[in-house]
User: Fold this.
Amino acid sequence: MTIDWRSYDTTGLWDELITDSHRARKGAGNLCRVLAGLSDEELTARKTAAELAIRSMGITFTVYTGEGSGSIDREWPFDIVPRLLMKKEWDQISAGLTQRVNALNRFIDDVYHEQQVFADGILPPEYIERSKDYRPECRGVSPRYGVWSHVCGSDLVRDADGQVYVLEDNLRVPSGVSYMLENREVMKRVFPELFEEYVIHPVDDYPGRLAACLRSLSDVRSPQIVVLTPGIYNSAYFEHAYLANAMSAQLVEGSDLVVGTDDMVYMHTIEGPVQVDVIYRRIDDVFLDPEVFNPDSTLGVPGLMRAWRAGNVALANAPGCGVADDKVIYTYVPDLIRYYLNEEPILPNVPSYRCVEKDQRDYVLDNLDKLVVKPANESGGYGMLIGPKASKAERKKFARQILANPRNYMAQPMLMLSTAPTLIDNHVEPRHLDLRPFILSGAKNYVTMGGLTRVAMRKGSIVVNSSQGGGSKDTWIVDLES
Amino acid sequence: MTHTLSSTAQRAYWLGRYLERAESTARLVSVNARLFYDLPKRLPLGWQPLVVITGNQDVFNEFYDEPSEKNVTRFLINDARNPSSLLNSIEFARENVRTLRGIIPRQAVEYVNELYLYAKDSLSEPLSRLRRSQSLVDIPKFTQRIEGFMSANMLHDDHWSFFRLGNYIERADMTSRIIDVGTDNMLADVVELEPFADIQWRSVLLSLDAAQSYNTEVQEPINQAAVLDFLLQNPRLPRSLAYALKSTRNGLRALPRNDQALRRVNRLRRKLAGFNLTEPEQIREFLDEVQIDLADLNSSISRTYFATATKRSPVKKISKPADKTAADPTHSGQTARSTKAAGKQRPSSRRSVAKRRPSKKTTSSNAEKGKSRS
Assistant:
């Protein structure tokens, strides 16, 4: 036997499957038993089967290889040990996510209309005006249902005490959902017997839910929906193609679309122009419309903002929704929930310090060696300082950056991210992970059953991004009662 | 119902053309190499005809002093400055297929990739005769595998129709060019010498992989009239002009808004059916007309179906310094090609050939390139 849970070391950390006393957590018993019962050869065979499945299913992600050489497709890194969450806990998390996204959408709508939130002193207006993703061009536009962020991916982490926190809300163009779906497919091929042992909630209704959400954004009976991709060299192109296919929507690039003199959006087809009603856009705001934003953009569609403002096309997510996807605004989310919904937050934020406020900034500067400092508007783990792991010189340099532009930074204590057993050279070791569920908002809300679990494959690392050596796991929402 | 985008239809069409072009080029070089080794050394035979076939003699003359075996094979196989070189055709096919993921079966996409990797690896310089001849024989195996897989597994939808259209129009063009060169009188001296009498037309048949079929179907010794009739008119030979045009018509029939293109292809078919010429000069003029008509058909298809899709997202640049004729790396445009007739004025009301078949100075690919970068 190659997996021995007694030698699995979780000291000081919260492990998703195994307790400090080397026992399986509630619900994980069968899984741990099955895994421990596999011989060396069987374990290798399963791992190989997973790799084969990923290759034959063509599950890839794109890595930029640097200047001039472009990019290459890599096979999706996948760990065969699943991550388990109890349905009961998940229901609570799910309700918390819906609550957050609803409050955030109310906030974005308010920012682009009355700005009551500033008048009432919940947060100062200069935060918005100086936000990189605030788009004055969106003022006065009223997307259906007041929803701006139709697809949100929130990152959840669990600290050493077992508490789940929201680390950030990706409100602009979050990716990863196709990998959540494909991970489940791979898992079914590799461990079919486990699906008999457990009641695992399915995830594969997502494309249908997304299509319904997008349909609800148009008043046309059967709207023409397109997925707008930057093209094959984008790191998430696999996902764009996957979702378009699964929704029977058209996958288009900017050059396939044109805005007519009637301010309607059309796509070029071999039968001539066909009107487009809903665009699930997977390109950033600034590239959307060269007439309004970056004039050099070849990815977007000239006139698209005109068509959107005229209400002739729905854009998901709406332009300008990134105003709430700002790590400094994040620190206000609990207040926004209370303000807009008159409810107490169900899911807590990670305690955070705003560098723009003097006393908090002073604390941050004095404690850089204990904190993680994040820029307001970066994603993918770029531009961060992980204080405890940084050198003195790096911290000094970062302190200067903070002082030069305090609005751009916030800091959080370094969480001890939870771990889960991960197969490393035919035995299991704890590796840190997070979880990205996806929340849809249109006529109604929908939260995925679980989400994409990302795992840092390097020992001790907490960087889970696939572009930086992260892997992934299938995520099971398990119901013991039914 | 999903629609067929102009852009993806265009890529499928050019995928079809480039794969067919790659295969024809590989076959052409390997067959002719074999053949030239048969000929007596004292005969003034060059490799020039191969350059003429691909219609890029101007480019060739710009970069090479003489049409030696080494120069010509390098030019046709792996010279990046030749827009229709074998490696360029394969690279363009690959670029097109990359943007057709989700439309073309995954496996076929992988096969195209394998072809690209194989060609790049096995046909790079320095290229010995032995390595060249072995590798060229393999190219059609790769292309046939791709097309066979697509035929058997891909949805036979509009994209498929465009892919096949690309195949057949390229094939019609290539067949007419090969016959064109075969009709040249450069071998006039040779054909009077036994045992080389039939070598010219045998070479043409071999280039089109039609020698065996000729023996089965014609049962007459190889001679100009019989070979011409076989390669132009035979309804059962997949590489005959008649077959390629009939298939082009069938492909068009499955598409919407096909009237203009159908009219053109039918006119060409009627012209072919009435072919009854014996003088080499007349035959060559007829073949020039065929090539011009095919170029017109190509523009008609582009105008009708792709006109709006010429602008596309930036695709990785292929570095070709100082190369004015490099094909558009986005491969939406036809690569430069001209006939020996280019520049010649046609009588009557026809527009000048040079205008229709742009020579390298005004290649459509250059125009395309400018547009695609905007």
